[in-house]
Automatic annotation (TrEMBL):
Catalytic activity, as annotated: L-seryl-[protein] + ATP = O-phospho-L-seryl-[protein] + ADP + H(+); L-threonyl-[protein] + ATP = O-phospho-L-threonyl-[protein] + ADP + H(+)
Protein name, UniProt field: non-specific serine/threonine protein kinase
Keyword check for Signal: yes
Domain Protein kinase positions: 567-835
Record membrane topology: Single-pass type I membrane protein
Extent of the signal sequence: 1-21
Coiled coil: none
Organism phylogeny: Eukaryota, Viridiplantae, Streptophyta, Embryophyta, Tracheophyta
Length: 856
């Protein structure tokens, strides 16, 4: 009898367990599986346990609590396909960038347990359903980058649990509802890039936990409410590109946590309040394109953490405060188009990290401080349209200067010969001054110079014959001088002018070059200068140059001196932020590329040992898409690295020379992007320890004779900062640096992912994508088709395989340039996608919109 009862008990227990594990064991669970299968998203296999479906998570009772279809391709799928009322236990829905269409159904409001809803980066249209206000447990709501229209429903104020609210980049109209002020748990509020009107509600001052508020790119009017001064936890305040007016409220000085303040492109008036000086954590201050008046307050000198400051296009007057010289981290300073007077303060010469200085269109007088030319990182200098006098400044040992404009001043004297040393110079404007003497012949040998204007001066003598190297696509203006000689080569339809005393030559800049100058005007180098060291490092003598570790330092140095004629400019094939690159052919016949590092000599034995250990590790890196680093030579006079030589130079140059760009067809460009992805995946995930490149740009992608792509300069940024923490030094090239580095110096693999995305877009577009990324942020690119942004020098592809490859590259690129680092894919994931993706795309290129392949 006891055995019989025990058997019955066991059977009952087993039955209960089976009932518990079966998803079809109750009416409610049957409704869930029916809702999922009827949607057609997971097929129609009723025999499978739907908790095992891809992208679905169930609780212990077998009820669906999460659906994550982010980054999936749900073509022609709509939210209406699912019966949401049959999924009452859902807690998390993630459909970001899954190509959803249609609207948001009212039934979403029945998901009373929902805490996370992300529908960003889709093609969703229509209004927000009023039932959304029923989701009182919702903590995260992101519907950005869609086509949602109508007004923001007042009921959104019922979502008292919200921590994140992002409705940016849509078509919302009407005012901002004051009920948002009820969401006191909010830390993240993004309403930017819509068509919102009206004033900023005073009630937003109740959001005491708010860390990030972005209302830029709307049509908001009125003034900044005084209640904003209550938001003492606010770190990012962006109100740019609206129609706001009035003055900056004094309460802004209470926001001591602010890191970024951007109120540019509005109609603000009055003086800049001295209380701005209380915001000592600021790294970015953008007040440009307003109507601010008065002088720049001296209190601004307290902002010692500033990295970028732009006050251009206002009505500011008075002198430039001496205190700006305290900003030791400053990389960008723009005070252009104001009414500033006085002299350029010599304290600006202390800004060793400064990349861009624009003081143009003011009333500044006096001489240019001589030491301004000593700034080691200066890449953009515009002092045009002032009243400056004296001679042109001498730019010493600055190999990064790209843009130099001193036109429309009262400068006198000869053109300095040291300008010939600036081999990276692209734009040189010296017109409308009182310059005299002859034109240095070396000006024509700048490999990247595309704009030269020396007009309206008192120059004399022969026009250097070397200027004939300027060809179509570059601009030269030598008019209104007293020059003799043959004018440089011009296109056949140019009209000759044989006058002796006035030689005029203006070659029209082609559109690609204009775009290049616009996008590269701020392409600057933001690497810190390496500390000088001087100590001879020696390595063991027993081999050939292919393994420089086997060379004695003295012998290696002598071989290099002989091969490059003591680093003569004739052997220089390029210059970057870290050093100049030389081509060296050794007696053995082997050719190498030598990177001679600027401002780095051996002195400190500790740094010497660390440097050698680091390079030793880097020489062990082996990948078919990474330039081989053979080693280094450390000498008391200089230090250089020895690389494999790449015959076709950089991707940057190839994309900017028409004949070479046309040679890079679509398939080659896709392969280039694929090679970069594989190389970065190897550095991040296969190297021990992982290597973060920190300076991915088109200038560091090299091409061999077969146009295969190779990543160069890996680890160089780290090499030059061995005595610095990742949190205090940020390396990279302006235009490729991830946006989070405006307020954080922590470099990760996601920093490289962002730079990769920029390079991938640049490869497909044939130019830097800066304007495109800006237009996406402002929602102006909604109706642009993909074919409209591809390189126009190549015929549009028609092959379905090629079309699919291009669409895939652009899709991956946009995923990588997302503003949130965590949302960017790893380079390992990108590399694997290249290996496993589908090979064809049925949709013709002309039918693919930019919004379909874009992501924040």
């Amino acid at each position: 009898m006891a055995v019989y009862l025990a058997t019955i008990i066991v059977i009952i227990i087993i039955a209960l367990e089976l009932a518990k594990s079966s998803p079809l064991s109750s009416i409610s669970l049957s409704a869930e599986v029916k809702a999922l299968l009827n949607s057609g998203w997971w097929g129609n296999n009723y025999s499978r346990n739907y908790c095992e479906f891809a992208n679905i998570t169930c609780n212990e009772a077998g009820s669906v609590i999460q659906i994550d279809l982010s980054y999936e391709f749900l073509k022609n799928k709509k939210l209406e396909d699912l019966n949401w009322s049959s999924l009452p236990n859902l807690e998390r829905l993630d459909f970001r960038r899954s190509d959803l269409t249609g609207g948001i159904p009212d039934e979403i409001g029945t998901l009373s347990n929902l805490t996370y809803l992300n529908l960003s980066c889709n093609n969703i249209v229509g209004d927000l359903p009023l039932t959304l206000g029923n989701l009182t447990k919702l903590a995260h709501l992101s519907i950005s980058n869609n086509h949602i229209s109508g007004s923001i429903p007042i009921g959104i104020g019922n979502l008292k649990s919200l921590v994140v609210l992002d409705i940016s980049n849509n078509n919302f109209t009407g005012p901002i509802p004051s009920s948002i002020g009820h969401l006191t748990n909010l830390t993240y509020l993004w309403l930017c890039s819509n068509q919102l009107i009206g004033s900023i509600p005073t009630e937003l001052g109740n959001l005491l936990n708010l860390v990030d508020m972005n209302m830029g790119f709307n049509s908001l009017t009125g003034s900044i409410p005084l209640s904003i001064g209550h938001l003492t936890n606010l770190a990012y305040l962006r109100l740019c590109s609206n129609q706001l007016s009035g003055s900056i409220p004094i309460g802004i000085g209470n926001l001591r946590s602010l890191v970024v303040l951007d109120i540019s492109n509005n109609n603000f008036t009055g003086p800049i309040p001295p209380c701005i000086g209380y915001l000592t954590n600021l790294t970015s201050l953008y007040l440009h394109s307003n109507q601010f008046s008065g002088s720049i307050p001296q209190e601004i000198g307290s902002l010692v953490n500033l990295v970028e400051m732009n006050m251009g296009l206002n009505k500011l007057h008075g002198p430039i405060p001496l205190e700006i010289g305290h900003f030791t981290y400053l990389t960008l300073l723009d005070l252009s188009h104001n009414l500033l007077k006085g002299q350029i303060p010599s304290s600006l010469c202390q800004l060793k990290e400064l990349n861009s200085l624009n003081l143009s269109a003011n009333q500044i007088n006096g001489a240019i401080p001589p030491k301004l030319g000593d700034l080691p990182m200066l890449g953009y200098l515009d002092l045009s349209s002032n009243k400056l006098s004296g001679e042109i400044l001498t730019i010493k040992s600055n190999y990064t200067i790209q843009y130099l404009d001193l036109s429309q001043n009262q400068l006198s004297g000869p053109l300095p010969n040291d300008l010939e040393k600036q081999s990276y110079l692209m734009h040189l404007g010296l017109s409308s001054n009182c310059l005299s003497g002859t034109i240095p012949s070396g000006l024509a040998y700048y490999p990247r110079l595309v704009y030269l204007n020396l007009s309206h001066n008192d120059l004399s003598g022969e026009i250097p014959s070397s200027l004939r190297s300027f060809q179509l696509g570059r601009s030269i203006d030598l008019s209104y001088n007293a020059l003799d000689g043959q004018i440089p080569h011009r296109p056949q339809n140019a009209c000759p002018n044989k006058k002796k005393n006035i030689v005029m030559l203006t070659l029209v800049i082609s559109l690609p070059i204009t775009v290049l100058l616009a996008s590269l005007g701020f392409v600057l180098f933001s690497q810190s200068k390496a500390k000088k060291n001087q100590s001879v490092a020696r390595v063991v003598n027993s081999g050939d140059m292919c393994s420089i570790w086997n060379y004695d330092g003295k012998i290696a140095y002598e071989d290099i001196i002989m091969a490059t004629n003591d680093f003569d400019n004739r052997y220089c094939i390029g210059t970057g932020g870290y050093g100049s690159i030389y081509k060296a052919q050794l007696p053995s016949g082997k050719v190498f590329a030598l990177k001679k590092l600027h401002g780095f000599e051996a002195e400190d034995p500790t740094i010497d040992r660390s440097f050698r250990n680091e390079v030793q590790m880097l020489t062990n890196i082996r990948h078919r898409n990474i330039v081989k680093l053979y080693g280094f030579c450390l000498h008391k006079r200089c230090m250089f690295l020895v690389y494999e030589y790449m015959e076709r130079g950089s991707l940057f140059c190839a994309l900017r020379i028409d004949t070479e760009a046309i040679e890079l067809g679509w398939t080659l460009r896709v392969n280039i992007v694929k090679a970069i992805a594989h190389a970065l995946s190897y550095l991040h995930h296969d190297c021990i320890p992982p290597v973060v490149h920190r300076d991915i740009s088109s200038k560091n992608i090299l091409l061999n004779s077969e146009l295969d792509a190779f990543v160069s300069d890996f680890g160089i940024a780290r090499l030059l900062h061995l005595n610095s923490s990742n949190r205090t030094v940020i390396a990279g090239t302006y235009g490729y640096i991830a946006p989070e580095h405006a307020f954080s110096m922590v470099v990760t693999e996601k920093s490289d992912a962002y730079s990769f995305g920029v390079v991938a877009l640049e490869t497909m577009m044939g130019r830097h994508p800066g304007e495109l990324l800006s237009s996406l942020a402002s929602q102006s690119a909604t109706n642009i088709m993909l074919t409209d942004v591809l390189d126009p020098r190549l015929p549009p592809p028609t092959n379905p395989v090629v079309v699919g490859d291009i669409a895939f590259v652009v899709t991956v690129a946009f995923a990588c340039v997302g503003s949130e680092p965590r949302s960017r894919p790893t380079m390992q994931h990108v590399s694997q996608q290249f290996l496993s993706r589908r090979k064809t795309l049925a949709t013709p290129l002309r039918a693919i919109s930019l919004l379909q392949v874009s992501t924040p």
